[in-house]
Design brief:
This protein has 90 residues and is mainly alpha-helical. It has five helices and no strands.
Length: 90
Amino acid sequence: MAAEGFLEVENLEAIITRIEQKSRKIESLLKQSKPVEALKTALEGSPLKTRDERCKSANWIVVHRAIMAIKDVDGMLASLDPEYYDILMK
């Protein structure tokens, strides 16, 4: 049981690290005026199966940042591939 807890903590730290890296990439894309690409990047690799609220919250902040930069949300939703749309709805 203790080994499982250690692995879970290790995995959570890896997830947080990936979200932080993704955040930096998204900021770069937003500075380049590529908000839809930023949103797709934000949605890729989202930790959908984790129950950890810290991971979910950190990921939502990244996704929210990308969404808020998009001026034509309806157009963005129409242009998303179904896989991204599914992730966004989760």
